[in-house]
Amino acid sequence: MKHVSGPVPIHPHSFTHVVPASEIIDRIIAIAALTNRPSGYGWRHYLHDAHDEVLQDLRDHAAQLSLLDYEISDGVFTTTLDMQVTCSFQHEADMMHFKLAFC
Prior knowledge:
The chain is 46% helix and 22% strand. By secondary structure, the chain is of the alpha+beta class.
């Protein structure tokens, strides 16, 4: 598995997983409540942390499955704070397995 930046699928079977803004905000609140960040740690830092956490969760879920070749993009935010992550797979069966298990 490789990590790619941006939403460009490199495998023939792909879909865009949308993480709603409400989940991103919930993660930001949880991160802020559970961590002792230095002063000056602004909302952009928390947004970046939430972004990384979402990607890590998706990549961890993918690692739990017996998938062949796949990629999880770095994800991009929309203007409404939804996060779009492109997931691409070499085999359609792997894509469906991932979607059914985790999306």
